[in-house]
Amino acid sequence: MYMDPILIAPCGLNCRTCAQYQKVKAPCKGCNLRSTRKSEICILKNCKSPSKTAPKLCIGCTAFPCRRLQQFDQRYQNITGGYLSVIQNLQTIQQVGMETFLQLEEEKWSCPVCHKLLCVHSNLCPHCGKPYRKPSEKDRIKSVQGGHNHET
Fold first, then answer.
1. CA-to-CA distance for 100 and 65, rounded, in angstroms?
2. Burial of 10 (C-beta count, 10 Å sphere; 0-12/13-18/19+)
């Protein structure tokens, strides 16, 4: 599996692991490759603060980590039960460099059972269905609510 540096979004999210990138029909091409409606209005991608990194990453900003990035990071930590922190991704890139970061991403996002690419938006491998991380609180609530009839 090849992790491409162009697929690391300015916010630190690895676009290869995103459900929108992995869609079969009309997939997203990644924040840095193609403008989509979502990426055109993305406050983080279109930030006017100068970045000292190439490709442009939030870690190169003098305001790092800004309030918006912190909120985005918290959102993904909640979605993944703490498995993903975009701020930690950016700090890792700064500490070890992009090449080593991409190697770490390849290990992190390869299913331990079938070795295919995982998706950040699910705690199950989309290929073999095996869990690769503990479900988030949101996932646990969904599974409990989905399994029982609730009377109102």
1. 22
2. buried
10 and 56 in contact (C-beta within 8 Å)? yes
**What is the spatial distance between Cα 68 and Cα 76, in angstroms, rounded to a whole number?**
13
User: What's the rounded Cα separation, in Å, for the pair 82 and 136?
Assistant: 8
Question: With contact defined as beta carbons under 8 Å apart, do 127 and 116 qualify?
Answer: yes
| 16 secondary structure, DSSP code | G
User: Whose CA is closest to 5, among 91, 100, 111?
Assistant: 100
Burial zone of 95 (CB within 10 Å; 0-12 exposed, 13-18 middle, 19+ buried)? exposed
Closest CA relative to residue 69, chosen from 94, 89, 96:
89
Given a contact cutoff of 8 angstroms between Cβ atoms, the answer to whether 136 and 123 are in contact is yes
pLDDT band of residue 152 (cuts 50, 70, 90) is very low
pLDDT tens-digit profile of 60-112? 888 889 999 999 999 999 988 888 999 999 999 999 999 999 999 999 999 99
Q: How far is CA 102 from CA 1, 4, 46, 149, in A?
A: 11, 7, 23, 44
Q: What CA–CA distance (Å, rounded) separates 47 from 58?
A: 9
